[in-house]
Amino acid sequence: MKIKKGDQVQVLTGKDRGAQGNVVSVDIAKNKVLVEGVNIAKRHTKPTQADQQGGIVEKIMPLDVSNVAVLCPKTGEPGRVGYRIEGKNKIRFHKASGEELP
Question: Are the C-beta atoms of residues 59 and 45 closer than 8 Å to each other?
Fold first, then answer.
């Protein structure tokens, strides 16, 4: 998977299309990512021992990896990620601009 935790991404499809945020977590087995502030669902919870209050809780729901694109750190444009090997180092880069990704 070419998207990592901490990457700045833009949502390409769905109700939050165009929204940008940081990747909170990545699930490699399911090809899903959690993006901060995007695809938020409201869950109604009953009071429990752990949560005395209960009520309506906002929860970040996962997005498929194919529905997000990494933003270039230089230009801010969404695009794909590539890899190149320089010596013994494997470097991630933004394919559209050629800019290295952290």
Answer: no
Q: What is the CATH number of domain 8-73?
A: 2.30.30.30
Per-residue pLDDT of the chain (102 residues; tens, 9 = 90+): 899 999 999 999 999 999 999 999 999 999 999 999 999 999 999 999 988 888 999 999 999 999 999 999 999 999 999 999 999 999 999 999 999 998
Q: How far is CA 73 from the centre of its chain?
A: 15
Q: Where are the domains of the chain?
A: 8-73
What global pTM score does this model have?
0.87
